[in-house]
From TrEMBL:
Cofactor requirement: thiamine diphosphate
Signal peptide per UniProt: none
BP term (GO), one: branched-chain amino acid catabolic process
Record protein name field: 2-oxoisovalerate dehydrogenase subunit alpha
Origin organism lineage: Eukaryota, Fungi, Dikarya, Basidiomycota, Agaricomycotina
Function summary: The branched-chain alpha-keto dehydrogenase complex catalyzes the overall conversion of alpha-keto acids to acyl-CoA and CO(2). It contains multiple copies of three enzymatic components: branched-chain alpha-keto acid decarboxylase (E1), lipoamide acyltransferase (E2) and lipoamide dehydrogenase (E3).
Amino acid sequence: MLRAALLRSHIRKQCRSYVRPTSQVSAEPYGHLPTSQSPITPRMNFINSVTPDGTQIPTYRVLDGVGQLLDGAELPELDEAFARKIYENMVQLPIVDNLMNNVQRQGKISFYMTAHGEEATMIGSAAALANDDEILGQYREMGTLLWRGFGLDNVMAQCFGNHQDTSTKGKQMPVHFSSKEYHFHTISSPLATQVPQAAGVGYAIKRDPNRRGKNCAAVYFGEGAASEGDFHAGMLLASTIPSPTLFIARNNGFAISTPASEQYHGDGIAARGPGYGIDTLRVDGNDVLAVLSGIREARRRCIEQGRGVLVEAMSYRVGHHSTSDDSFAYRPRQEVEDRKRIDNPIARYRKFLEARKWWDEEEEEELKDRLKKDVMKAFKKHETMQRHEVKEMFEDVYGGEMPWNIKEQREELKALLKKYGKDWEPWRSELKKHKGEGKELLEDKSS
Ligand SMILES: Cc1ncc(C[n+]2csc(CCOP(=O)(O)OP(=O)(O)O)c2C)c(N)n1
Ligand SMILES: [Mg+2]
């Protein structure tokens, strides 16, 4: 009884402290609620990025479909040598891609992915970044590495996984590059894992007095990957713990067979930036000068404000998703043929260069000839090159000392090599492909 009375008295006191006499209530109809600066309004106003009249976030463009400057557009700062370097890199990409695609078809490598249709997005963005900005790619961004001077030898060595693959030592699938030297973080196939990691890398840059205000972390991801929770985790992280993280969404219209229209109902990926308080721009990903200008400005903001910026580059994936895909099973061949012609990123930029007398037909032929020869030469050199020593398989799986389970696997393979290595033909021929032919593992006394 006593406890119930005490409780009633406690509740009465609490109520008195909350409920004010009406004379003390403010007559101010507007103002702000304590946790927001949102203005008060008597009108009920639902907002959406999908508007009744279909208005969408505009797409920034500099060149029209035939390479002429758009009315009111400003050219990015660009001298002839730089403009030509951009073009040469754009032309190189499909030459490498076509060859490697065929090489995969011949069974010489296990897998390949092209950047067909996204040459302007890749090269324009790479050209806008500093070469020591950190890149966290999804898998289609080989062009950014080539821009930085990674070179065809390294590309071939990685794709063939041979003993010159210093990038991933034959441990990764083709095109899953990694390079400390070129500030390119290791590609991992699980989608969007690179996005929160990039916000972390951006934060690390911000904490480093030698890099703060100088570099950013640039993360590439597809519009499909942006459906992953990791995309939102990364955006939120860069928004609440600000860091110079440049989010580059490559909206190429497809996530394998799923069209972008089935990935989101809102206005693309760009519509999500303002939700995180992140400066956002949508660019024409087929217009290399728009990408160059857009990413340059995004990078400037990133570094100056120490905050995340989002750029959505709109393009069309002209190639199949990868060599494991046949896209004509889910999209009309004619659509692809049309998109190859309309707004073609390379042809459009070439027209711009020709109009300025920075390029001509003769140079075009000379360039294509040279690039094809270079690519073939690198391919021939690496095609038959031996792979890493078998022993290498167990090295560098983790940092530091080799853990017991890896040691156990190494011993198991040693035992199998002793048993079958010399006597069973499939093993004999497989071992010949490796430097040392497995002998180094048998001789290894480290365990
Ligand atoms: C977490 C996860 N789910 C599914 C996959 C299989 N997968 C690989 S690539 C891909 C499509 C990604 O599309 P997008 O992000 O738009 O990039 P794009 O290939 O168009 O460049 C899918 C579903 C995966 N690798 N990881
Ligand atoms: Mg996509």
